[in-house]
Amino acid sequence: MEHTEFNKELLSFLNASPTPWHAVETMKATLKAAGFRELDERQEWALDSGQGYFVTRNGTSIVAFRTGSKDVTTSGIRMVGAHTDSPCLKVKPNPDLRQTGYFQLGVEVYGGVLLNPWFDRDLSLAGRVTVLDSEGKVRDTLVDFKKPIAFIPSLAIHLDREANNSKTVNPQTDLPPVVMQVAETDETSFVDLLKEQIAKESGLAVSKVLGYELSLYDTAEAAYVGLRDEFIASARMDNLLSCYIGLQSLLNTSGDEAALLVCNDHEEVGSVSAEGAQGPFLSAVLDRWCGAAKARAVAHSMMISADNAHGIHPNYLDKHDQNHGPILNQGPVIKINHNQRYATNSRSAGVYRHISDELGLPHQSFVVRSDMACGSTIGPLTAGNLGVTTLDIGVPQFGMHSIRELIGSEDGYTLYRVLTEFMQREQVL
């Protein structure tokens, strides 16, 4: 895959994936088109050599893998991990709010959201809805309103003269978005609006809405930014970018070596769930693939946890260690923390640097300032669960956890090239 095509498809993937459910559906379609076979956790598996497979859990996490042509017990598995979720605002179960003729929705903050950028944006709504259909069956369906339907208006500076000096956000009272105006006699509920949208999107006749998991999102599409198109801006770059890179790497390997991609949900809230990295999903897949030889296979394996890194901000240079300030478009960032917030060790970092150097590609290193707390990823959780040698790496970005984030337009492709080589390398450890 060439650089221009890589970024073009990246923009399409980001635009098509407003929620983890939509991201996984997009990945599933891509894998099926490439000849990967879908597995069902409820059924027996019979895996063939040299074949690609994938399995999902909850519709928000996915494991895709190539079995390779060799004995996985002695050749090991080249693994890449990412996560499908991003910080956002989710609609509450009983969200209807009516005030002075405006219909608003109560929302809950998901993950560590930068809240101020959510004001004054054209917002839409997407996610999964569980319904009772006209035949009395419980089923799930995806919805995406696509057009702007909501807006969280700022309070005018005339009414808050200190807004530029001390802007704080109360998630309970400041964030409910305006979605329409209603007369006092109008009894339309949010559930009524959902039924209308489901009928419009899928033609499904819904007798009752039983539950939903819906997120607001910015309708502005992913786009190049910069006088020379040096950057790409989008929502949910953390961490759909890594999902896309991992997927393209898996698809473009030779297929001779055993390789795997796992994209977990719920990383932004701690990963403790059935489909999160601290849950049993990946381990269960490996049990069924490797059987009694799992421990030996894992001992020959390596995991690269791909999750975006903090690029050094030119307006806030003092927020970075002076020797570890990653620059956009100067290569992926090896993330190191000796307190195990990242799982990188000298061996896993060495493997990546060696492959990158062989390809003549740049790489950087990140260590958080010694007087600041360090974030984390699925890397330490996966390493702890499986006992697999792990590297934490990511593309440097600005605006992490904002409604819109920025990366260099070169770095994603650079990481893709290294991960593709990693996934098809005969010997990793």
UniProtKB/TrEMBL annotation:
What Pfam families does UniProt report for this protein, alphabetically?
Peptidase_M18
Read off the InterPro entries from this record: Peptidase_M18, Peptidase_M18_dom2
Enzyme class, broadest EC rank: hydrolase
EC number(s): the record gives 3.4.11.-
Q: Which Gene Ontology molecular function entries are recorded, alphabetically?
A: aminopeptidase activity
Keywords of the record, alphabetical order, are:
Aminopeptidase, Hydrolase, Metal-binding, Metalloprotease, Protease, Zinc
Q: Which cofactor does it need?
A: Zn(2+)
Q: Which CDD domains does the UniProt entry name for this protein?
A: M18_DAP
Q: So which domain of life are we looking at?
A: Bacteria
* Family to which this protein belongs: Belongs to the peptidase M18 family.
Tell me what this protein is called.
M18 family aminopeptidase
Q: Native species of this protein?
A: Marinobacter suaedae
